[in-house]
């Protein structure tokens, strides 16, 4: 083949690659490949923390207005609540369904962004850069591994580019149906995520900067007609919704120092590094989640690279400054302000600042801004402030470095058990409840912290709420041992049911049982007990039913004691070096006494014998 023929073939290949069909095909391939890549992560996840509370709430009643419109610590998300309500009725913890929905929504989000980029910039190779950024950035990965975040944010990541795309079509065609579609997509976003009201704001800035002015009175009135009712409902529900603390939401602002530190950390420790392939290192929060932990040196290096990129774009690209101002404004209003209303005080500026789920949905906006700052719009006149630099392939090394960092960061995040151990606990507990007879008495303790933190979720972190919905028949749940409870069971740390014992101090039975009547009988303790909540287990032989009265220091408690041979449990909070007993209604003959806390008997039979998947 001659040199001329080879040159001609290369030119034809370049033309094909530049053609719209080739760019569209490559974009679709990129979306598909990232789905395969992310599914490897998603399939290893399971429900966690808030997920159990949301599903339990959905199982408590009908799909009512009060259920859907309850604001959960600042989040109005009736769409997500509707999904949780349905999820509870489709297998309770159906992780296969959750994984399928997550990947399906992720696919739709990628396609929606591809549509927006094609509408704005045309089907040219340059749009593959912002698209590739969105598909690869680790910014979205922690949120993708948490079902509650998936159900809340991924529909928004679909609605945002779809709404903006329809708005672009309206500005170019004047057809009002496109404005109605943009408003409809905005409403869909607001049904799921509290940041969706900023979509019309993005459309406004996009219009004044790149789409030819703001003389679109009808469309702004339409958008206002969407935002005003939402605002009325949101603020009404915000101050009337009862939180898990049984109190209405009371917004509070942190000190200026805490607010500035939290915003700076979220910007430099989360948004900027993940926009460049970071955070490269993670700080585990339990076994199934992690915060970003960008090394300080890489944090400053990322900030320097971002400053260079912004500077170059502003010097060469017209209105690039407006694109970056758009991103900064969205970050401050949509990402920073919500966490200032109570969450920073609760979590602290460092924990809040490195929590990537607070900026996960911002990846769509960053992708859009990258395009606006570096790529001329379709048909845009005079896009450059000065002659364009002939460095079309400068994106290649940048993209390679970004992709390598992203793959490294995502692999580092996935290098942990993720949902494996929580899934084992839940499935083991479900199997245990299915194996015991209906009416079995189970002490309703809190699940381990790895499943749900009691300090955050209160009674929704109890076994009756987390595992109870999986039981095929009725279980007799007891929050507290009191009275002559026969053969109570308790969950162990692996999710198995075992016989219950009182773990603590034992006063052994004497050669003959000790008669206890109306007058106190004192039993010295082997060692003094500090002030705490205790359960006292008294073994007895009664001729008739009585009431057992217990005193520990100045604290007293009582519980019924049955007839014949048995044991009763008396809850008491106190401290002391002796235990005093007396009865009312008859005389008991007391044997062994135990004082402590309920715990699983490790030498007792376990149901099931081995943990599921353990």
Automatic annotation (TrEMBL):
Lineage top rank: taxon: Bacteria
Transmembrane segments annotated in the record for this chain: 20-37, 96-114, 126-148, 182-208, 220-238, 297-316, 323-344, 356-377, 389-414
Alphabetized UniProt keyword annotations: Membrane, Transmembrane, Transmembrane helix
Protein name: DUF2079 domain-containing protein
UniProt source species: Nonomuraea rosea
């Amino acid at each position: 083949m001659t040199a001329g023929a080879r040159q001609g073939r290369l030119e034809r290949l370049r033309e094909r690659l530049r053609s719209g069909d080739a760019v569209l095909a490559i974009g679709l391939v990129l979306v598909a490949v990232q789905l395969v890549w992310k599914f490897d992560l998603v399939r290893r996840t399971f429900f966690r923390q808030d997920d159990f509370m949301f599903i339990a709430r959905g199982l408590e009643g009908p799909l009512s207005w009060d259920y859907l419109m309850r604001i959960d610590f600042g989040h109005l998300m009736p769409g997500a609540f509707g999904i949780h309500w349905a999820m509870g009725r489709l297998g309770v913890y159906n992780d296969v369904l959750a994984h399928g929905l997550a990947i399906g929504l992720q696919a739709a989000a990628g396609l929606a962004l591809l549509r927006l980029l094609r509408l704005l910039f045309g089907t040219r190779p340059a749009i593959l850069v912002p698209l590739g950024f969105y598909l690869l950035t680790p910014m979205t990965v922690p949120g993708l591994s948490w079902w509650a975040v998936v159900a809340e944010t991924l529909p928004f990541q679909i609605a945002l580019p779809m709404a903006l795309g329809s708005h672009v079509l309206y500005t170019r065609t004047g057809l009002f149906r496109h404005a109605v579609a943009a408003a409809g997509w905005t409403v869909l976003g607001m049904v799921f995520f509290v940041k969706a009201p900023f979509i019309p704001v993005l459309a406004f800035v996009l219009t004044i900067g790149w789409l030819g002015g703001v003389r679109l009175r009808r469309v702004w009135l339409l958008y206002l007609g969407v935002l005003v009712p939402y605002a009325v409902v949101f603020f009404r529900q915000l101050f009337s919704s009862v939180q898990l603390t049984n109190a209405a939401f009371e917004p509070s602002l942190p000190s200026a120092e805490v607010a500035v530190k939290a915003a700076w950390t979220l910007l430099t420790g989360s948004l900027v590094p993940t926009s460049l392939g970071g955070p490269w290192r993670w700080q585990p929060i339990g076994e199934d989640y992690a915060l970003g932990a960008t090394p300080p040196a890489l944090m400053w290096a990322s900030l320097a690279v971002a400053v260079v990129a912004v500077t170059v774009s502003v010097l060469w690209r017209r209105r690039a400054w407006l694109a970056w101002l758009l991103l900064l404004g969205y970050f401050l209003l949509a990402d920073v302000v919500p966490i200032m209303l109570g969450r920073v005080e609760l979590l602290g500026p460092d924990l809040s600042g490195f929590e990537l789920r607070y900026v996960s949905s911002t990846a769509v906006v960053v992708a859009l801004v990258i395009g606006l700052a570096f790529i001329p719009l379709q048909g845009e006149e005079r896009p450059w402030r000065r002659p364009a630099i002939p460095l079309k392939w400068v994106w290649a090394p940048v993209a390679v470095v970004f992709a390598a960092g992203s793959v490294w960061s995502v692999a580092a995040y996935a290098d942990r058990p993720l949902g494996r151990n929580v899934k084992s606990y839940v499935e083991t507990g479900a199997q245990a409840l299915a194996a015991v007879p209906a009416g079995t008495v189970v002490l309703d303790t809190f699940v381990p912290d790895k499943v749900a933190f009691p300090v955050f979720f209160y009674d929704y972190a109890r076994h009756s709420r987390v595992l109870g919905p999986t039981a095929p028949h009725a279980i007799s749940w007891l929050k507290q041992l009191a009275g002559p409870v026969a053969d109570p069971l308790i969950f162990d740390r692996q999710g198995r049911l075992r016989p219950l014992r009182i773990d603590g101090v034992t006063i052994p039975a004497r050669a003959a049982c000790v008669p206890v009547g109306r007058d106190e009988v004192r039993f010295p303790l082997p060692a003094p007990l500090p002030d705490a909540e205790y359960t006292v287990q008294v073994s007895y032989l009664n001729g008739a039913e009585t009431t057992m009265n217990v005193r520990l220091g100045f604290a007293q408690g009582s519980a019924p004691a049955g007839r014949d041979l048995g044991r009763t449990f008396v809850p008491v909070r106190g401290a002391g070096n002796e235990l005093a007993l007396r009865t009312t209604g008859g005389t008991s003959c007391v044997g062994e006494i135990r004082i402590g806390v309920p715990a699983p008997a490790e030498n007792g039979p376990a149901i099931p014998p081995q943990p599921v998947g353990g």
